[in-house]
Amino acid sequence: MDFLYRMHLVDFDPRDTNQILTNWDWIKQALKLSSDSLYQEIENRDFDTLSPFTKAKLYKYLLRGRYRSTPFGLWAGVGLGNWGSANQIELPIAYREIIGNISNDAGKQTQEPSKYRSAPGLKAYADQIQYWSYCRQEEGWRISYLDKNPLVAILLTYFEKSETLDFRIFQTFFKTKKENKILEIWEMLIESGFLIPDNLPEVATSPLEMGLDIKLTSKITINRVIQEKLKNLISEIGHLFVPVESEFLNNFKAWFRYTFDDRFVPLSLLAHQNDFSIHSEPEMETMKKDLSHSPEILGELWRNAEEFDLSRCFDKKKTELHHLQIAFKIFGDNELFIENIVCNRPFAYSGRFSLDSEIKNLVSSKIEDISQEAVFADLILFESQKSNHISRHDNVFDFSIFPFGCGTPKNHLGTDDLHLGFRQERLILISQKLNKQVVPVVQHPLNPNQISHPLSRVIWEIGNQDQYRFLPYQDPTFQSSSYVPRLTWNGIILQEKRWILNSKSHSSQKDLHQFLQKSNIPSSILAGHLDRELVLDWTDPTELGFLWEELQRLKEVTIYECPWKEHSPFQKQDGQQLYPQVIYSWKGKSRTAAAIQFQNRIIGSDPCWTYARIGIKEEGLMPFLFKPFPRIILGLKEKYLLKKWYFLFYNSPKSEIRLRLLPRDQHLNPQLASDLRKGLMECGWIESVQFDPYYPEFEKYDLPDRGIETSESIFHQESELMILGDENRDYTSILTWEERDRRSWITQTYHRLIELSGRQDLFFHYYQGLVKQIPALERRELNKAGIFQSEIVKDCYGAEIFNSEFSKIASGSEEVLLRLIPNHIHMCCNRAFPTETQEHERRVIYGLYKKLGKSLHGRLTNL
C-alpha cells in the first residue's frame, strides 16, 4: 500500500427523500453513535412523521456526512490505496470496525488496580505537601495539597525507597487491626489523588458512547500522474513553509533558561513546578522570521484577481522538512485540489487508525530516519475520556515516555531517567539509561490545549518544536484579508478562493443572499473549517438558512469555493459521485542529533547554602557594586560567620547578581535570607530579590575524592578580592582597577595555575585553538596593542591565597585540568567584568596563549 485515504460514508443524495427512506436504518445507526439527542427524536419514528425542525437538523447532519472526510463514527472512515494507471475505487464501498489491541475493551468493567504509586510532582513543604492529581469530575489535572501529619510522613519515607504500594503493606503502617478503618483511610488517599494507580494510562475505559473507528476495506487506485505532480510540487515550494513557535513553548523556553541556565534538569524536578502554567485560552503561533515579500505588494498583486499563482513571486526551492503530508482531492482530468498541508507531524492523519495493523505498517514506513545518537519515543497521555479516546494508537516505536513518575517497564522512559536541557535554542531530552537524545513523538492529532498535565504538555511541545506551517495558513497577509483569490502553483490549486463573512455586515438573511449574489460567489461553497465544515448551495433557501445560523452563532464564518463538487472521477453505479480525500506522505531529511558532550546535570540541591538572584535597576550595577554591596557582605560575614560566599553576573535579560552564601549553621539560612533581602531593598538600586535552591555544578567542577569544595573556595577567594580587596595588604578591590590591570591579573594568576600543573604544552595548544576563533581583525588589534608585553605592579596580589587550592587542581588528570581551568577562567572574567565580559575574556585567553608561548618557546608569537 502506498497511501491513506479518507472518505465519507453517506454515498446518497441527502436532498432525495426516497434515498433517505432507503437508508433510514443506517442513518439511525450512525446518529446513535454521534448525536444521542437527535437519535432520541427519530429512534421510533418514520422519516415522514418528523417535524420540519427535526428534518432540518437531520438534513444538516446528512449534508455534513455527504462531503466531509474527517473520520467520525459511521460517517467516514480510513482506507489504503496504491498508485496505478487510472483513478478507480472498489465498489460497492465496503468497510468494517477497527478492533484494536487495547488494554480495556469498550463496555467492560475496569479491574480495580492493586498497586499504587505516589502522585506526580509530589513535593514536601514546611506544613503541606503539593502534587498533581487527576480530577475525575473535571477530567483533568490540577494542583492539590495535603497537610502534613504522621501518616503522610510515613508515606513520604516509604516512597523514597519503594515505587509502589498496595493495601497489604499499607496496613502495616498502623497499630490498629480494624481493617475497615484502615480501608477508609486508604480510599481517602486514593480519592485525594495522593495515590494513583500503578497502571495509570490503562485504567480508563473507552465506552461505546465514545464512538467507533471505521476502516474502508475498499481499495483505491490513483493515477501516477498525480504522484509525479506532487513530487514536482514538493521540489519547488520550499519557500512556502515558515517556522512557527507556540506561545507556550516560547514562554517555557524563557522560563527554563532563566531558571536553569545551561543545566540538564531531571524531569522529576520539573514535575512539581507550576511556575509555567497552562492557559485555557487559544494558543497563538508566531512566525520565527518575517517574510521578505511586502504584504502591500502581495495585496496589490491579487487585487480583484480570480487566481494568484504564487510561483510568480516565490523562487523555486526544494522542500527541506523532515516530513510532509498533503491532503488532496482529484477533480476533472487528473486535476489536483489541495485541502491541507501538514508539516513535521507524520501521525496527524493516522492517529487511532494505527490500531489496524495494515495502516500501522504503512505509517511506520513513512517516518523520517533518525541518527544513531537519538531515538524516537511515544508520549503516554492521560486526560479526559474524549481525549483518551482520540489518543488511542498502537506505538510504532520501541520506547515510550512516561511523564507521571518512574518508568517501570524496560521500554518506558520515566521522570527519573529523562533530563531536559537547552542547547542552541532547542530543548533537548536525554535518557540516562540509553545515553541518547530522546525525540518525543505524538502519534495522534490531539490538540495540545486539551492537555492539562503540565509535564505532558511540555513534552508535547518539545516533540513539536520543529514546527512549520504552510505560508497561506499562517501569514497575516493571507489570513486577515476578507477575500483571497484562488492560490495556485503552476496550475495546482493550493487553496481555493476564500471569503470571510462577518455578521455585522449583514442585517438579514436576505441581505446576505444579495451580498453573495453581487459578489459572484459560486453557488456551491464550503463553510467553516476542519471538522466543522459544511458544503452548501446558498441558492437553496434551506441551506442559505444553515449558513445564516452559523453566521449568527459564530459572528464570523469563512467560506470557500468547491471546484471539486460534481467533478469527481469516482462514482457509484447509480451515478452518485464519491469524494475521497487522499493523504500523500513524503519522508524528507533525516533527523540528526549530535551527541551532547557535556550535560552539566542537576544532581541535587545543597540546603546548606542561601542562593539569591538580585535584580539590578538600570544604571544601578556599578554604583551598587562599589558601595552598598561590600557593606552588605561585610555585615553578613560578621553576623553569620560566613564560611564562604561568591557572586556572578548575569544578563537574563536584565542585569542580575547571583549570590551564594554559606553560613556556619544551616539553620541560620532563613534569618540570613531575611537580613539580606532587607539590606538589598534598602540600598536603592535593587528591583527584585528571589531565593532559589542551590544546585552545585558537580559535572563542571568536581574533583575526584574532593567534590566541588575546592572550586567553591576559589570562587569565594576571587569574590573577596573583587569586592572587598585585602585590608591587611592595603589592596583595593579588583573591580576598582583599570580594565587592563584586571585582565593582566587574571592572565598571570591562571598562568601560575597552569605552571603548577606542568602542562603548559597542553594548554598552549588548547588556547591556540580558541585564539584562532577570535576574528582576524580583532587578533591584529591585540597584537598591535602589545598589552601583554610587560608585567604590572600588582603581579603578586593574592598569589598566596590561591596556592593551597590551586595545588589540588594542578595534580589532576588531563580531563580534570581541561574541565576545571577554562571554566574557572570564565567565571573569574565574569566577576572582574560586569559588562562586555566576552570581549575581555577573549583578551585574557589571548594573553594566556602569548604567555604560554613565551614560556615554551621563549617568544611571544603572534597568530
Question: Helix and strand layout, with pairings?
Answer:
Elements: E1 3-8, H1 17-22, H2 24-34, H3 36-42, H4 52-67, E2 76-84, E3 88-89, E4 95-97, E5 115-118, E6 123-124, E7 128-135, E8 140-147, H5 150-161, E9 165-166, H6 167-171, H7 179-192, E10 195-197, E11 214-223, H8 224-234, E12 241-246, H9 247-260, E13 265-266, H10 267-270, E14 285-287, H11 295-301, E15 307-309, E16 323-331, E17 335-343, H12 357-365, E18 374-379, H13 385-391, E19 399-401, E20 412-413, E21 418-423, E22 426-431, E23 436-441, H14 454-463, E24 468-470, H15 471-474, H16 476-479, E25 483-484, E26 486-489, E27 492-495, E28 498-502, H17 509-518, E29 524-527, E30 534-537, H18 541-554, E31 556-561, E32 570-571, E33 577-578, E34 581-587, E35 610-616, H19 621-626, H20 628-640, E36 644-651, E37 655-662, H21 669-681, E38 686-692, H22 698-701, H23 709-724, H24 739-757, H25 760-771, H26 776-785, H27 799-810, H28 814-832, H29 837-857
Parallel strand pairs: 2-11, 15-26, 18-19, 18-23, 19-20
Antiparallel strand pairs: 1-2, 1-34, 3-11, 4-11, 5-9, 5-10, 6-7, 7-8, 12-14, 12-24, 13-21, 16-17, 16-34, 21-22, 22-23, 25-28, 26-27, 28-31, 29-30, 29-31, 32-33, 35-37, 35-38, 36-37
Helix pairs in contact: 2-3, 20-21, 23-27, 23-28, 24-27, 24-28, 24-29, 25-29, 28-29
Organism: Algoriphagus lacus
Pfam families: Lant_dehydr_C, Lant_dehydr_N
Protein name: Lantibiotic dehydratase N-terminal domain-containing protein
